[in-house]
Write a structure and sequence with these properties.
Elements: H1 3-19, E1 23-26, E2 31-34, H2 36-42, E3 46-52, E4 57-65, H3 66-73, E5 83-88, E6 95-97, E7 106-112, E8 123-125, E9 128-130, E10 136-139, E11 155-161, H4 163-166, H5 180-191, E12 197-198, E13 201-202, H6 221-227, H7 248-261
């Protein structure tokens, strides 16, 4: 088979292969792996229609309640967890407070309605078009929560954690809760940890920011404060999104957090 036909075949079968991938679910007291067929056995499948901010259009999907999925896997209120970490196949790993799930608006979708998967529902990722399979997290409120809830796709793992126990090396030790460094940490936790790590804890899509060199040791404050809200103004084709919602004070707090963490570097990986 020549290379051209191999590429054609790969694109034809890849979305279906991804859709068949298992989902790892890790709770404080147990870990399990379920196939899509097993998930359908455990949780009722629902149809959901919404104005989707990733596709920027109205979409209809099949999926299951994320809250009900976690309960079926063994989650019970009172467990030592306050955060949900959602890991994609490329290392993107956003997290969100567990309380976001309590109103049961989060849905783990696995197919476009009426289709066997996402074969005809690819999403733009830079210049490429990719399948959101095997699982894509959406919210029933649609675009109304575009900026306040994560919308990750290609999900392969869910993990319920105590945030401080899961990420102790990125906590701003000895920073008062009313300090600029602590406020910057809260912003980092909300908007940056999905792609970036501090002391190798966090996402893997973007660069590590503290070890062995802290980013403030090789970027000036002026450049860093300009880069954070608008990376594409520095680098064409940057994968880092813009952050127009960040105020100047927010940026100052983020830089204060990064500078604070300079004193708490890990020594070896």
């Amino acid at each position: 088979m020549n290379r051209v036909w191999w590429i054609v075949l790969w694109w034809a079968v890849m979305p279906s292969c991804l859709a068949a991938q298992d989902l790892q679910i890790q709770l404080p007291e147990q870990k399990l792996t379920w196939s899509l067929a097993q998930i359908k056995q455990q949780v009722p499948v629902q149809q959901i229609k919404l104005v989707d901010p990733v596709y920027n259009s109205e979409k209809s999907f099949e999926g299951v309640s994320l809250l009900q999925l976690l309960k079926a896997a063994g989650y019970t209120p009172g467990q030592a967890a306050d955060e949900v970490v959602l890991t994609a196949s490329d290392g993107y790993a956003p997290s969100m407070p567990l309380e976001y799930l309590l109103d049961d608006q989060a849905v783990m979708v696995f197919a476009e309605s009426g289709k066997k998967d996402f074969e005809f529902a690819l999403v733009a990722q830079g210049k490429a078009m990719v399948s959101p399979a095997p699982f894509y997290l959406v919210w029933k409120q649609g675009k109304a929560v575009e900026k306040t809830r994560p919308w990750p796709y290609q999900l392969v793992k869910l993990e319920l954690v105590s945030f401080q126990q899961r990420y102790p090396k990125l906590y701003p030790t000895n920073a008062a809760q009313n300090s600029a460094a602590y406020q910057g940490f809260l912003l980092f936790k909300q908007s940056c940890i999905s792609c970036h790590s501090i002391n190798l804890q966090g996402g893997e899509l973007g660069p590590e920011l503290n070890a062995p060199k802290n980013v403030t040791e090789y970027w000036t404050d002026d450049h860093l404060k300009a880069f954070i809200p608008n990376a594409s103004g520095y680098r064409y084709k940057s994968k880092m999104p813009t952050f127009p919602q960040f105020s100047d004070k927010d940026i100052d707090h983020l830089v204060a957090y990064l500078k604070h963490m300079k004193s708490y570097k890990i020594q070896t990986p």
